Amino acid sequence: MPLSRDQVKHIAHLARIDISEAEAAQMQAQLNDIFHLIEAMQAVDANGVEPMSHAQDVMLRLREDTVTESDQHALFQSAAPQVESGLYLVPKVVE
Amino acid sequence: MAWETLIGLEIHAQLSTRSKIFSGASARFGAVPNAQACAVDIALPGVLPVANKGAVERAIRFGLAIGASINKRSVFARKNYFYPDLPKGYQISQFELPIVQGGSIAIVFRDGEKIVRLTRAHLEEDAGKSLHEDFHGMSGIDLNRAGTPLLEIVSEPDMHSAAEAVAYARAVHSLVRWIDICDGNMQEGSFRCDANVSVRRPGEPLGTRREIKNLNSFRFLQQAIEYEANWQIETLQEGGTIHQATVLFDPDSGQTRMMRSKEDAHDYRYFPDPDLPPLVISEQWIDEIKRSMPELPSQKFRKFTDDLALAPSTAAVLISDRSLAEYFETAVQGASPEVKRQSANWIAVSTNAKLNERGISITQAPVSPQQFRELMDRVVDGTISGKMAKDVDDAMWAGEGTAGEIIEKKGLKQISDSGELETIVDQVIAANPKSVEEYRAGRAKAFNALVGQAMKATRGRGNPAQINDILKKKLGG
């Protein structure tokens, strides 16, 4: 199932990535290469095989519920383009 | 033909862990902006999530409390969407394999019981907070809440009215506090509801639903559902159609309105999070948690209605808060059935009203269960009437002493001495020949007037039942 140019643009929009027409064409070709690969793999009969949810056969490690992190916001915010009153400032978003 | 409204709720309960679900930052409410947002929470490159055992344990407690199945293997997934208060660009949630599946919660509605089925409950992280006040035309982002553990509790569309939905939400609110997994503080956003509302003609397939987001009080939940259901019915009756949408409730206008964000914001592209292998829960761990569970509200409800024969509505008030139920049980320890019954009614009505008036919990009440019991004993043994007990109770709440002290001090002791009462009744009969005549002529009202006169003569302290008997005897003779 090859991706249409519109679907590629839609995915770019969801990720808020601005792509040009030429880039969209390039992405479409690259993504469709991946889809062809998936199509080839779908020839394998996987009936009765439990879907894999992780590449490694390991289980989740759990940590105890304790606070281990200290306040480092000054350090982190030294890399932010704009801050005020401890807040990160970003272009206006209104719901 | 009538319309049928169908309501399902998605409740986000913030789990009462000390640290966040995937990082060791504090999850305490009210810190200065970003002081509790660590490298994992703000999604610095190279960080990895490590899951919090306390959050998983709380989800299991919930699953056990509602008789659900706990999935021995569940999977964390990425829910992808773009928003500045979600720095990773995805929320870690559970999709295909949630930790809790099925189960049900009984609610008491109009004095009957109703079962609401649950679809699932899954673990996820909260997002940060966007502040849209003017920061030079920009938005401010506080990521303290990012990564706070949530249990999203999803019901089937089993509710048919706003009142029913509120009863269910209250039952869940009571349960999560009862089993100590969430503080239930709605002002601080620890318990938030989304309501899915649709309408249909009975017997027809499900109508298109609209989702009302972020209702943070029971009053708003009620108002929003009522408005939304009426709006949908009116729209359909006028020949319109309902389109699936997400709406917000505006408490000022009492209306719901469409969110501005486009529908494609819901194209979440879920996939299993490669940073987090499957969550595996052992039978042994579940058993351990089972042993640590308190007696559940549903079990207490059964006990109160079956063993003590309390009305379902009374029992429902008692189990609305674990500390209230425990207050009642402590107070009536070893009491007679009559004391238990009176105490239950008193707590469900008078005490509960006092708590609501003052906005406090029973644990903060100035009257201890033992002091309360003394009051109830005095009512049941006839020392004071129910009406006097109200005054004594008020005085106890005002800190004027124990029931015994107050009864003594105010001279409230009920007159149950039959000799004294007979004298008073004789005086009343002598002073009201007209009423006596009317009573003898068959007018029942006249009898009540005489009882009233006798009560007045005792300044409300006469035992009404005894006065009744004496009057009847004297007038009949």
Q: Topology of this protein?
A:
The complex is a heterodimer of chains A (95) and B (477).
Chain A: H1 5-14, H2 21-41, E1 62-63, H3 73-77, E2 83-84, E3 87-91
Antiparallel strand pairs in A: 2-3
Chain B: E1 4-14, E2 51-52, H1 53-65, E3 69-70, E4 73-74, E5 76-80, E6 90-94, E7 100-101, E8 104-109, E9 112-125, E10 129-135, E11 138-142, E12 149-155, H2 162-178, E13 191-200, E14 210-215, H3 218-237, E15 245-250, E16 255-258, E17 271-272, E18 279-280, H4 283-291, H5 297-307, H6 312-318, H7 322-331, H8 337-358, H9 369-380, H10 386-397, H11 403-409, H12 418-431, H13 433-440, H14 444-457, H15 464-476
Parallel strand pairs in B: 14-15
Antiparallel strand pairs in B: 1-12, 1-13, 3-7, 4-18, 5-6, 5-17, 7-9, 8-9, 9-12, 10-11, 13-14, 15-16
Structure description:
- The complex is a heterodimer of chains A (95) and B (477).
- With 95 residues, chain A is α+β, with helices and mostly antiparallel strands.
- In chain A, 38% of the residues lie in helices and 9% in strands.
- In chain A, a hairpin with a 2-residue loop joins strand 2 (83-84) and strand 3 (87-91).
- By secondary structure, chain B is of the alpha+beta class.
- Chain B has 3 domains: 4-286, no CATH class; 294-410, no CATH class; 418-475, Arc Repressor Mutant, subunit A, CATH 1.10.10.410.
- In chain B, strand 10 and strand 11 (138-142) form a beta hairpin.
- Chain B is elongated, with a radius of gyration of 29 Å.
- The model of chain B has no long low-confidence stretch (mean pLDDT 92).
- The chains are: A alpha+beta (95), B alpha+beta (477).
- The interface between A and B is large, with 39 and 59 residues.
- Strand 1 (62-63) of chain A pairs parallel with strand 2 (51-52) of chain B, so a sheet runs across the interface.
